[in-house]
Design goal:
Blueprint (H helix, E strand, L loop, with lengths): L4 H17 L4 H7 L4 H8 L6 H17 L22 H6 L8
Helix pairs in contact: 1-4, 2-3
Length: 103
């Protein structure tokens, strides 16, 4: 899936907003998702190769924001039911386990 320049900008902003609303640091997210800070930064910057990882982080942040009682910022490009997207692995996304490595 290729995002337009506007979608890339919006998605990065939506990730940042939800990270702030969840009151979490990159280090805290990395620890909870059992990965490195480098990997979380790559996902936030849309530099991660695995498309599933972005959706895993998206779902994680939406859940964490909801746990605070706040309303999450909706994701515009990362929307809909990911199970129906042929280029994503819905089972892996559902597992919440990020891909291996920092690429």
């Amino acid at each position: 899936m290729t995002l337009s320049k506007e979608q890339i900008k919006a998605t990065k902003s939506e990730f940042a907003a939800n990270l702030a609303l969840a009151d979490l640091t990159v280090a805290e997210v990395a620890k909870e998702l059992n990965t490195s800070e480098v990997k979380i930064e790559r996902i936030l910057g849309l530099k991660q190769r695995s498309l599933n990882d972005g959706w895993i982080l998206r779902n994680y942040l939406l859940e964490k924001v909801a746990e605070t009682g706040k309303t999450p910022v909706p994701f515009t490009a990362l929307g809909g039911d990911y199970h129906g997207y042929w280029f994503l692995d819905g089972g892996q996304i559902d597992s919440g386990v990020l891909s291996e490595g920092n690429r």
